[in-house]
Task: structure prediction
Amino acid sequence: MSSIVARQQQPGPPPARAVRSAQPRRLLFTAGDVILVVLLNGALVVAMWVRHGGLNQLGSASAKLTAAGQITALVGTYLALVQVLLMSRSPWLERRFGMDGLAQWHRWLGFSVTILISAHVVFSTVGYALGVGNSVAAEAWTLMTTYPYVLMATVATGLLILVAVTSTKMMRRRLSWDSWRFLHLYAYLAIALAFGHELAVGTDFSDDAIARWYWIALYVAVGLCVLAFRVGHPLRMSLRHRLRVARIVPEAPGVVSLYVTGRHLHRLQARAGQYFRWRFLTPTSWWRTHPFSLSAGLNGQYLRLTVKGVGDGSRGLQGLHPGTRLAVEGPYGLFTAQQQSRPKVLLIAGGIGITPLRALLEEIPPKKDAITLIYRARRWEDVVFRDELEQLIRDRRGTIHYLIGRRGSAELPHDPLSVQTLRRLVPDIESRDVFICGPASMMRRVGAILRSIGIPEQQIHLERFALI
Amino acid sequence: MFPTRAAVAIVATALAVVLLFSFKTPAQSRPRTPAADVSQGATPSPSPSDSGASPSPSVGSGFKDGTYTGQDVFTQFGDVQVKVTIAGGRITDVQPLQMPFEKQRSAEITQFAGPQLHDEVLQAQSAQIDTLSGATYTSEAYAQSVQAALDQAH
Result:
C-alpha cells in the first residue's frame, strides 16, 4: 500500500524527531468545576419543585404522593440527562475524569435513574388515584389513555427498565457485548419518548414558562454534546486523516499489529499510552468501535495498534486486509507520562496489556535505573515486542523482568505478582509511579498489593482494558 | 454482515414509534373549546326545585329568588366561577360556569370534585363547605365564588 511503510522491512521503534504530542495544557475548568455545575443544576431543578409548592403538599396522602411523584421524576430525568452527558465521549470530561471513572459513575447513576423513574410512576399513579377516588388500575388506564403523551412515557419506562436489567452483572454474562450495546441504545429512545409528557402534564412546566425553557435548554445542551462528540468529532477526524490499514504483521499466536497510514498524520495529536476508538469499515464490523491503544508513539508516518483476538469484537478483526478503511475518534485516556509524579517508574504489563506501556516507554525520559518493566505472560510465545522492548529499555538504561508461566502450574505454583516478588524485583517500589495494564483481575490484585504496602493513590495508574 | 436480528429490531422499533405517535388522547384529538362548554362532566342534573312551589320569599334564609353569578376566582389550575340559583329563598342549584379543564389533571379533578361540591353547597345552604381532599384549590375557589353569588342575593 503505502510506500513509506513498505520500505520499513523491520518495523522498529519509530524515529523520535517527528513525534508531535499534545502539550500539557492548563485546563480551562477543573473536574471540581464540572461537578459543581452538575450539582448546581440539580439544586436548581429541586428549587423549581419547591417554588411550585412541592414542600407545601402536606395535606392529604394524595397530595404528598403526587409531590413525591414530581420530585422523583424531575431528579430522575435530570440524572438521565447527566448520564447521556457522561457517555457523550466528550474529551473535556474524559480528560478530567478518565473514561473508566465516567463509566463507573454511569453504571451507578443508571440504576439510580431507573429506581427514581419507577418510583415516579408508582407515586404519581397512586397519588392521582387517591385524589379522585379511583382504583390504581383504573387510574393507570385513565392516565395512559387520556393524559397527553403518558402512553409514550409508559413505554419509555419499560425501555429504561430493559436497559437496566440487561446491564446487571447476571445478564451481562449471558448477553454478547453487541446485544447489550444494541439494547443500551434504547435509553436514548426512552429519553425522547418521555419528553412530551414532561411538558404537557408536568405541573412544574405547564404553568411556568421560564422553567419550561430551562428544561428544554438542558435537553438541547446535552443533545448538542452528543452530536458534537459522537458524530461530529469522529466524522471530522476520519475525513481529515482518511486512515487505511497499510500492513498487518503477526506478533504472537492470535496477536497482530496493524500499521495504519493516512493523510496529515503529523497533525494527529495524542500522547503515548492513550487510545483511540477505531471503526473498521468492513461488512462484518462497521457498526462497532474498538478501543485500542497505540502500541508505538506517534511518528507522523504511521500509527500502530496491536490487537489480540479476544472478546466479541476483536475476533472479527482477523478478516482485515491491507486497504481496509478506518474511522477514528480520540485520543482518550489518562494513562500518559503526564501523570508521572515521581522521577522513577515501574511498568507492569499483563499479556496484551503491554501495548500502551510499550508506547509509554518512548515518552519516559531516559535516566539511569529510572524505568523497570515487569512483563507477565502465560507463555513465552505470547510475549510481543520483545526485541523492541529490550532495545528501548537498553537505551534508557532500565531493567526488564519477565514473569512467564501459567499460574498454579508446576513452574509457577504461586501468583508471581506477589508482595515478595515485587519487593525483590523493585526494592525502591514505594518511590516510583506504577503504571499497570492487563486483565481486570490482575490489575485488581496488583492494585490491592500496592495499596497494602502504602503506595499513595496518585502514584498508581491503571488502564482498564476489560472495561472499555 | 450487520446482524439480521438487529435490522429486524430497528424496523420493528421504528414501526412501534410511529404507531405510538399516531395515538391521540380524546383531549388531543378534539378541537379546543372554552372551558365552560366542556364542563358538562361536572354539571349536575338540575335538582328538583323542592321549594319551588312557594314563589314568595322564604322567611328563614333571607335569600332573594333569582340567579346570581359568582366572582371568577383564579387558581393555579384554572378559573372557577359558578352561578347560584335561589328559589323560595333556598339554594336550589349551583351551575359551574368555569372549572379548571385546561389540563387533563385538572379536568379529572373537576369531574370528581364538581358534583360533590354542588351537593355540599345544597346541603349546607351556604358557602361553608368542607374542602375536598385532593381538590383543595378547586374547593376553596368554588366556595369563594358561591359566597360572592350569595352576597348579591341578600
